[in-house]
Amino acid sequence: MKLTSRYEQTSCRLVLEGLPDLSAGQSSQTIGILTGFSLALAGKTELEGQRDHLQALLNVVLPYARGLISGIARPQGTAEVPVAIRPLEGHHELELRSSQPNTPPLRLPLDDAELSDLVRCLDRLQLDPQIAVPLEWPAPLPLRRSELRHRLPLARRVAAPLTGIAALLVAAALASLLPTPKPPASAPAAVSTPTRGG
User: Which residues are CB-contacts of 4 (< 8 A; sequence separation ≥ 6)?
Assistant: First the structure.
């Protein structure tokens, strides 16, 4: 009763194989137990793996793509996980590390279209009601304050403070041109002299 689910885009094909988890009450057409998956990118080596490899792929590709949409190309994946992705000379490099000793990592260059197709396949997987494999989907995280600051061009970052300083200098210059008011001259006090009555 092995089931297959395919997600295809122009340059990417993701295929999941598995079985229904009948003990969890799933239908016979639902993949609840993943037995393997394959990922084919146009003109590149076809990749095969198990659930932990698929999970590692989700954990790095989706946050990386979200960062790119926000204008931040931040590498994803540490040396301890089997998948990593990073920006590389205007493209993207997907790195897959084997658990076998003395096996060099496989590095696949991706252009923007290939990365976009891969993300679309993963999105379709997430939305597929026939997939009930317990995968953890990375939650979208907000950009760090320092990243938000660097997203704005330098001219826009300094425009507000410079405008404030310029307005203050103009106001001070105009105030110095105004004549200083003179204090009102005080009128001499009238002295009354007593008159003699006759």
Answer: 15, 16, 17
